[in-house]
Write a structure and sequence with these properties.
single chain; alpha/beta; 8-stranded mixed β-sheet; 7 helices; binds cytidine-5'-triphosphate; binds calcium ion
Amino acid sequence: VIAHFTPKVLAGKRILITAGPTFEAIDPVRGITNRSSGKMGYAIAQAAQEAGAQVTLISGPVALPTPRNVQRLDVQSAQQMLDAALTQSTTADIFIATAAVADWRPAQIAEHKIKKAEGESTPQLNFVENPDILASIARSTTAQSGRLYCVGFAAESDNLVEFASAKRKRKGIPLLVGNIGPNTFGQDDNILTIFDDSGHVELPRASKRELAKQLLQEIAKRLPKN
Ligand code: CTP
Ligand code: CA
């Protein structure tokens, strides 16, 4: 009720969000991907728009409608997501990386569909590491100059506090949002833990929509004043 009458917390801010999985092709009809419904990222995009921000959503393949008044750019691979994010980030105030980026991609993409053949061995895949989109943007001059506030996500299967605090420092970002997976995948609710320079605080179980609003409040109060 109170929030309804206060000024919009993100009025005039430009927010860039990555969401969903990436898809890394093996051949024209096959590929590898990560488990991610995109629901958390899409909920944040919608909540940010409602909080007055101008929102760009860079999305991997998901089965979700585009939130109202949000600019959506569809991509497939991590490399495409990185290219779009680097371009868009130069004019953004906040970058939120919710995407489940494939850590590796097949070293080669077969030009033609790989066929089964009697008596032949199964195909062997070799992988190369994908670029780290969040770390790349956190290292960019836009972020380093203090103009872009970067937020990461981490789904861990255990040891959340230890792994998430280490990940925040490794990526060089002021804020990282952790949750325990894989039980949250595709669900409509979640529990989030927010890690910053001074420790961590839990946002108790709620709908992804409610958590998105709370997270944006937490981000807004940490933005550099100008
Ligand atoms: N991320 C990214 N690009 C990648 C890998 C991760 O932008 N190539 C971002 C994710 O969107 C998320 C954060 O980094 O915001 C953490 O992702 P996560 O997979 O938990 O971290 P990794 O560094 O890949 O470590 P690992 O998977 O080994 O735990
Ligand atoms: Ca990863």
